[in-house]
Write a structure and sequence with these properties.
alpha/beta, 288 residues, 18 strands, Rossmann fold
Length: 288
């Protein structure tokens, strides 16, 4: 690997240590660094701007890897760059839990050496398609690596959600919202809502209602082949659809949110032999 795109959390206070480390790695001229669009104002001269087309990154086969300095939120924001370039993501954790990260700053030199020597594996993480339909028309669509969340936003009361799977009625619930997540997202918001933990290599979609009015309503796991639909009723004010932690589109009375597995995936670099279960024990203190 020779050409690396760089994504840095803009809220990190000590960016200079990252720049100094990258400059030392670049000595010898064997490595090229390119900045993401969102981070160009933060990047010193050692890192070149990535070519742009119509305000977005073109498909750029010359990028071998995307180095993401930050937490899981920064990695989620690098999702589109990975899709545009086809390059895998290597997360360097500077945040809190760092479920999606594979390295830390003190280990980055050895991690880069392993990349150059080809000592790594690729883990492809599934995405979900999310469409918001109003009066039969698609008014928003997006891809989620973690989750698509329906939440009541400023509405003071519960919202009514009717859920169907491939046209078959599942249940109705009054709740604060619903989290539809991938296996990757099963350790995020869905877990806080009582949802199950799924191994990242699985192909499935989890629906986790938020604070349902009836206790018998529980999170459910659906095979990735199902076409999930959630129809919204009982809104007192506009609700909101959130994709990977960012507000994406307002939800109106009678809107439908359709969630399906995407044919696309995001590749992640795996350097160590740590299992997913070891990560759970370390990050969540599972069983302790």
């Amino acid at each position: 690997m020779k050409n690396f795109a760089i994504c840095i959390n803009p809220d990190i206070s000590d960016k200079q240590s990252i720049f100094s480390l990258l400059e030392s790695l670049r000595e010898g001229g064997e490595i090229n660094f390119y900045s993401a669009i969102a981070g160009q104002a933060l990047i010193p001269g050692i890192i070149k701007p990535l070519p742009q087309r119509n305000g977005r990154h073109p498909v750029c086969p010359n990028i071998d890897c995307i180095l993401v300095f930050g937490g899981d939120g920064t990695i989620l924001r690098a999702k589109q760059l990975a899709l545009d370039t086809g390059a895998p993501i290597l997360g360097i954790n500077l945040g809190y839990l760092g479920f999606l990260s594979e390295s830390v700053l003190p280990e980055i030199a050895s991690s880069m050496q392993n990349l150059k020597l080809g000592k790594y594996k690729l883990l492809h993480r599934m995405l979900i398609n999310c469409q918001l339909k109003r009066n039969g028309q698609v008014i928003f669509k997006g891809l989620a690596l973690n989750d698509a969340v329906i939440y009541k936003a400023n509405s003071p009361g519960l919202i009514h959600v009717r859920i169907k799977a491939s046209g078959r009625y599942v249940f109705d619930t009054r709740c604060d919202g619903v989290v539809a997540c991938t296996p990757t997202g099963s350790t995020a918001y869905s877990l806080s809502a009582g949802g199950p933990i799924l191994a990242p290599q699985m192909k499935a979609i989890v629906l986790s209602p938020l604070n349902p009015h009836i206790l018998s309503i529980r999170p459910m796991v659906f095979p990735s082949s199902e076409r999930l639909m959630m129809k919204i009723h009982g809104l007192q004010q506009t609700a909101m659809l959130q994709i990977d932690g960012e507000n994406s589109c307002p939800i109106m009375e009678g809107d439908e949110i359709h969630v399906t597995a995407s044919e696309r995936s995001v590749p992640f670099i795996k350097l160590s032999n740590r299992t997913f279960y070891q990560i759970l024990r370390n990050k969540l203190h599972l069983g302790k």
